[in-house]
Amino acid sequence: MFSPLLLLTYSSLFLPAICTPLHKSNGLAIKTTSGDVHGFINQTAPQVLQFLGIPYAEPPVGDLRFAAPQTKAKGSSINATAFPPSCLQGSSPTANVYTDVVPQFLIEGGQSEDCLYLSIWTPANPTKKTLPVLIFIPGGGYAGGGEDIPYHNPDLWVQKTQSHIVVLLNYRLNVFGFPNAKAITENRNPGLLDQRKA
């Protein structure tokens, strides 16, 4: 098992080598080992480069529903300008403390089985040549959560400090991520395997 500090240091040292800027016209694009990724610069945080909804594994649907995440095939272009759907999770049809008092803690977008995506926020004017990378795994008792929860959005934090990179990721939840079914003899916790894959 890797030390989180070692992982963050390792990631910050090699991220520039695998992400080379292509251009900055009408958005933002970087060349990666997985293909070209097109992000954007939001005017509410103009010093932050945002790449939302980058797939890190093949969609876990059909025969892959309860399987370990499969490496995403290299593509030619990824549109990373909007939050991806969150993984399937339960929601209450009745009002509760979250819907009435703190809706910023709830997912805003849709839900889908095709949900293995991550999003990256990086400073436009970094304070150092290499930066630490914070990998944030949304909580929710393995039953809820996702990248598009407004409270988790780090764009203004990265805008203010210009001293770190933030990565948020989705992973399979509930029965899709933690089935623990007798019929499944391998990979009983695909949600944890998703986190490792990302």
TrEMBL record:
- Classify the source by domain of life: Eukaryota
Signal peptide range equals 1-19
- What Pfam families does the annotation carry? COesterase
Q: Which residues form the Carboxylesterase type B domain?
A: 29-198
Keywords of the record, alphabetical order, are:
Signal
What protein name applies here? Carboxylesterase type B domain-containing protein
